[in-house]
Amino acid sequence: KKSEQELKDEEMELFTKYYMEWKGGRKSGNTSYMNIPRFYYRLPAEDEVLLQKLREESRAVFLQRKSRELLDNEELQNLWFLLDKHQTSPMIGEEAMINYENFLKVGEKAGPKCKQFFTAKIFAKLLHNDPYGRISIMQFFNYVMRKG
């Protein structure tokens, strides 16, 4: 006959065995969690000088790349000139408008940095109840200045 402690030990052993089989069985059936990329990296500590320098340098390179994507003053002036040159009549009050065809023409002439703004999605986003299917040049230019 087994003692009470031996029975408890045996029960715990069986419980652990069955629990691990159950847990292991579920894990092997769904391994999608292994494909999730790591998204959090802890900040380097004060004494990890090399990691801090690496973080600073990578941030500086990232900011330089982003600033090269921004439109400078000359490119903005050129964009405004092209938009103004290709406006579509008739004007509504004081507001200059542009249709989709001319919008695409300006997109071709504006340069590679501006190309991201000349999409059908952006045109549709800025289209507001114009009977001729046009958008406001000023609204589009303000959109470019906010996003770019």
Automatic annotation (TrEMBL):
<dbReference type="GO" id="GO:0005819">
    <property type="term" value="C:spindle"/>
</dbReference>
<dbReference type="InterPro" id="IPR039865">
    <property type="entry name" value="PPP2R3C"/>
</dbReference>
<dbReference type="GO" id="GO:0005737">
    <property type="term" value="C:cytoplasm"/>
</dbReference>
<dbReference type="GO" id="GO:0045579">
    <property type="term" value="P:positive regulation of B cell differentiation"/>
</dbReference>
<dbReference type="GO" id="GO:0043029">
    <property type="term" value="P:T cell homeostasis"/>
</dbReference>
<dbReference type="GO" id="GO:0005813">
    <property type="term" value="C:centrosome"/>
</dbReference>
<protein>
    <submittedName>
        <fullName>P2R3C phosphatase</fullName>
    </submittedName>
</protein>
<dbReference type="GO" id="GO:0035303">
    <property type="term" value="P:regulation of dephosphorylation"/>
</dbReference>
<keyword id="KW-0963">Cytoplasm</keyword>
<dbReference type="GO" id="GO:0001782">
    <property type="term" value="P:B cell homeostasis"/>
</dbReference>
<dbReference type="GO" id="GO:0030865">
    <property type="term" value="P:cortical cytoskeleton organization"/>
</dbReference>
<dbReference type="GO" id="GO:0000226">
    <property type="term" value="P:microtubule cytoskeleton organization"/>
</dbReference>
